[in-house]
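haha ok so turns out i had the wrong file open the whole time. this is the CORRECT one, sorry everyone. sequence first:
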Amino acid sequence: MGKTLKDRFNELQAERERSWSAEQLARNAGQRRLLAKRHDPAKLPQVGDEIPPFTLIDAEGRELTRDALVAQGPAVLIFFRFGGCPACNIALPHYDATLRPELQARGIPLVAVSAQTPVDRALIQRHDLAFPVASDPGYALARSLGITFFPEDQPEVAPGESWIGATLGTFSYEIDQPAVLVLGPGGKVLFLDVSPDWLDRTESETILAALTQTVPTSSPRRATA
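then structure:
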């Protein structure tokens, strides 16, 4: 059996414990702990709720609408923080290797989504990702799901200084929490799992199990993305 996401994140954390200062480790762990403490799944959209129409923009500038994605059945959306996020650079290629092939065999679209605009092409090229990566303009979809957050530390930014808002292209400290959303026809929520601790994300097996429970296996259909 290959490594799980948890295994890979444990390796990342072990490397950080070897190379980061105690202050860096404490700040990172504290933010993740706080987000996990504040997390309330009851406030999120529930199974059966309808997500309003949305439009994502892929790396080629093409629109990916809610209705196009679910026109022939369910679609899986993987929300990530931003292209330079170390944990996202572990999660996305992992999903590409362990989740995408099964979804592709069943004709189920898989799209990675973040607020970062435009899409970070370097992320796609670095891992040779075989599924679309898209931007969520103005945080519209993520906000409708209630999965964005503002970090506790929001220092003033000098002109030309590097900061997360410039990296995202949103010029805001607001960031998406990692999440997995399975949408069915009509935009109905079939599964939603949010990871306030970005080093504890949904495993591919969990996503596939959720699909097995909610979507009858049938002959493959042509994917729209």
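The mean pLDDT is 94.
again sry for the mixup
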